[in-house]
Write a structure and sequence with these properties.
2 domains, 9 strands, globular, alpha/beta
C-alpha cells in the first residue's frame, strides 16, 4: 500500500498498542512511522509492544524525547518514502479500507491534493482519556470537502468553516512541505490553532479536497482536551500572536501566488480579507453562550458528575447536546466491518494482553 502513517506519541503506550492491534488485524500494508517522545520507562513499554508486531506491520520507530508533537511530525515527514501520507495522533485512527479507496481517488484525480473518508467522533466512558473501555458515544462529524477551481477560493472556503484537514490522506510532497512549515511556529500557537490553519492553507492552495463514501477517520473525544481549555482572549493577547499571524498570511499569500501563477495585489488583498474575517469570527465567539457552555460548564459538569452512577445518563446526554455538529449515535457504523474491528479493540478490558 503506497502510504505512510505519521504517528507522534508521548507517554501513552496503551494508545499505541491499540493502533498496532488494529493495523495488524486489518491487514494494513503501508508503513507506520512512529516518533516517541516518551520518558525512558514508557519508551521501553512501547518498544516491547512494537517488537511484537514488526513481523506483521512495516514499522519505523524513533525515540526522540526532546521533540514536541510538531517537531516530531516534521521529523517523520523527512522519512516518508511513499507517494501518500497522513497524520494520525496516537488516540485517533484512519481505517485501512478507506486508505486504499482514497489512494485510488487521488491516483485518478490529479487536481486534488487530499481526500477524506467519513469521520466519526468516539467517546469512551463519557469523554475519559483512556485507550479502552465502554464506548458511550459515536458521532459523525463533517470534514473539509472543497472543490473550487481557484486556490484563493479554496483557502477562503476552508477558513469559512475550518473543518478538519490535517488528518486527510494527502500527496506526500504537499503534506511534507505543509508540516515542515508548521514546525516554524512555537508549540503553544501551533496547538491553538495556527498550526492546523497553516497546514490546511497549503493543502488547499495546492489542490482540491475530496471526500470518499467510506468510513475513514475515527477520532477520540476527551472532555479535558488541551485545545478546549485555552481562552481565546488570552491566546490573542500573547506578544508573539501578531508575528505568527503575519507568518500565516505570508505563507498563504506565497502559496496562492504560486498556484495561480500570479503576483497581483488582488491576491494580497484577498488573503488579508480572508484572515480578517476569520479573526472577527473568533472575537465574536468570545461572547457566544454556546461556546462558553461547551468549553467550561460542560467540562465542569463531567468532572463533577462522572463518579455519580445515577447521573451518568445525564452526563452522556449533556455531551451529545453540546458536541459541535452533533448527530445521534451512528448505528450503521457499529456494523461496518472496519469500524467494528476497531471498536472491539477499544472495548477490550486489558489492552496489554
Amino acid at each position: 500500500m503506497n502510504i505512510s502513517i505519521l504517528i507522534p506519541t508521548k507517554d501513552r503506550p496503551d494508545f499505541i498498542l491499540r493502533l498496532l492491534k488494529y493495523y495488524s488485524i486489518s491487514n494494513f500494508r503501508g508503513s507506520l512511522l512512529i516518533c516517541d517522545s516518551s520518558n525512558s520507562k514508557l519508551f521501553e513499554v512501547n518498544k516491547s509492544n512494537i517488537d511484537k508486531f514488526k513481523n506483521k506491520i512495516d514499522i519505523e520507530y524513533y525515540h526522540k524525547p526532546k521533540l514536541d508533537m510538531f517537531k516530531a511530525i516534521s521529523y517523520l515527514c523527512n522519512r516518508v518514502k511513499t507517494d501518500y501520507s497522513a497524520l494520525v495522533c496516537d488516540d485517533d485512527l484512519i481505517l485501512t479500507d478507506c486508505m486504499q479507496v482514497s489512494i485510488n481517488f487521488l491516483d485518478q484525480n490529479k487536481d486534488y491534493s487530499a481526500v477524506h473518508g467519513k469521520a466519526l467522533l468516539m467517546g469512551i466512558e463519557d469523554g475519559q482519556c483512556k485507550a479502552n473501555g465502554k464506548i458511550t458515544s459515536l458521532i459523525e462529524y463533517p470534514v473539509a470537502n472543497i472543490k473550487h477551481s481557484k486556490p484563493i477560493d479554496r483557502v477562503e472556503s476552508f477558513f469559512n468553516d475550518a473543518l478538519n484537514l490535517n488528518m486527510a490522506i494527502t500527496r506526500s510532497e504537499i503534506n511534507t512541505e505543509a508540516f515542515l512549515q508548521m514546525s516554524h511556529i512555537d508549540s503553544y500557537n501551533a496547538s491553538y490553532i495556527f498550526g492546523e490553519m497553516l497546514h490546511a492553507s497549503i493543502i488547499c492552495a495546492r489542490g482540491k479536497i475530496g471526500k470518499v463514501d467510506e468510513y475513514g477517520l475515527l477520532r477520540q473525544f476527551h472532555a479535558e482536551q488541551y485545545f478546549h481549555q485555552i481562552k481565546i482572549i488570552d491566546w490573542m493577547s500573547r506578544p508573539e500572536w501578531c508575528g505568527v499571524y503575519n507568518f500565516l498570511k505570508i505563507v498563504i499569500t506565497r502559496e496562492v501566488r504560486a498556484s495561480e501563477g500570479s503576483s497581483s495585489k488582488s491576491i494580497d488583498d484577498g488573503v488579508s480579507d480572508i484572515l480578517s474575517r476569520w479573526v472577527r469570527k473568533m472575537l465574536s465567539s468570545i461572547g457566544d453562550n454556546n461556546k462558553s457552555i461547551s468549553n467550561s460548564i460542560y467540562i465542569r459538569l463531567v468532572s463533577y458528575f462522572k463518579n455519580i452512577k445515577f447521573l451518568k445518563l445525564l452526563v452522556r446526554y449533556i455531551m451529545f447536546f453540546l458536541v459541535k455538529n452533533r448527530k445521534n449515535i451512528i448505528h450503521d457504523a457499529f456494523i461496518h466491518k472496519g469500524v467494528a474491528i476497531y471498536l472491539d479493540i477499544v472495548k477490550e478490558k486489558n489492552q496489554n494482553k
